[in-house]
UniProtKB/TrEMBL annotation:
It comes from Riccia sorocarpa. InterPro entries: ATP12_ATP_synth-F1-assembly, ATP12_ATP_synth-F1-assembly_N, ATP12_ortho_dom_sf. It is found in: Mitochondrion. This is ATP synthase mitochondrial F1 complex assembly factor 2. It comes from the Eukaryota.
Length: 285
């Protein structure tokens, strides 16, 4: 009970929210990408609450976010109960930092992931796993440039170590191909990856699905989830081909830079979402 009271202190919320936002590289929120996005999107209603706070759920365990005295719910009107106080505080921080002039849902990626976990994963789990396995045949790490090219050399140098890691981590090494149709993965690779996915809880699966979609790679998603890659290294791996093209043809301002900022936000959000599932409030970010 003492811990919960501590969570409700406004200074505690502000202090932790600032640290959480820093750890997510939220300076990206003020980049040109966010400025342009803010101009294009209409405000989704004026801020209707004074403060966001956290409390232990009265029923069912877990933690709830309060907007004033109203319990936060998902878009499907389900109770939004979080498994850890740290994750609850992070969601409260996203609401607390909304501007007085209006609420912008696109600036709350953690709220979105939590809502997906509760609204979609329980009913769509089989479909999500099947889709992730289907995309393994076109995993970004497995689709290579023509052998002998400069890009193929970079892919071998920076991508092969991740496939080696996958072999040790999940028990099977995905195959690679330079075919335009992707790399058809053997059944034993798919079986090993399916076993890994089925061992995830709903919260982890939601984050993995987001990471795989953003990176176009289930292997990269798993490497981030298991702390084999941090966000910066993951971005280097994901953007290897794009950076190769930029070296040859140059950076397109208002194009490449916006893509980079958007990708960083999405990868950072899913990464910290996973970390907060086991994060202790006594731990330093």
């Amino acid at each position: 009970m003492a811990m919960v009271k501590g969570l409700l202190r406004k200074d505690s919320l502000h202090k932790l929210s600032w640290r959480l936002l820093q750890s997510m590289s939220t300076e990206s929120a003020t980049t040109k990408a966010e400025e342009i996005a803010a101009k294009k999107r209409k405000l989704e209603g004026r801020r209707f609450y004074e403060k966001a706070s956290v409390r232990a759920a009265e029923e069912g365990g877990g933690y709830e976010v309060l907007l004033d005295h109203r319990v936060l719910r998902t878009p499907a009107k389900k109770a939004l109960r979080l498994p850890t106080p740290a994750l609850a505080l992070a969601l409260a921080a996203e609401w607390e930092w909304q501007d007085r002039s209006g609420v912008r849902s696109f600036t709350m990626p953690l709220v979105r992931l939590a809502s997906i976990t509760i609204d979609q994963i329980p009913t769509d789990k089989e479909k999500i796993i099947a889709t992730l396995l289907k995309y393994c045949h076109t995993d970004a790490l497995c689709c290579r440039a023509e052998p002998g090219s400069q890009l193929a050399g970079k892919q071998t140098k920076y991508w092969d170590p991740l496939l080696d890691w996958a072999e040790k981590e999940v028990g099977a090494r995905p195959v690679v191909s330079s075919s335009i149709f992707g790399a058809s993965q053997p059944q034993h690779v798919l079986d090993a990856l399916e076993k890994t996915l089925r061992n995830l809880n709903h919260w982890e699966l939601a984050a993995i699905d987001s990471l795989a979609s953003s990176s176009r790679s289930l292997v990269i998603a798993l490497a981030i989830a298991r702390n084999h890659l941090n966000v910066d290294k993951a971005l280097d791996i994901i953007r290897l081909e794009e950076e190769h093209q930029i070296e040859e043809w140059g950076l397109v301002e208002g194009g490449h830079d916006i893509d980079i900022a958007d990708l960083r936000v999405r990868i950072s959000a899913a990464s910290i979402f996973l970390r907060l599932l086991s994060y202790s409030l006594d731990e330093k970010l």
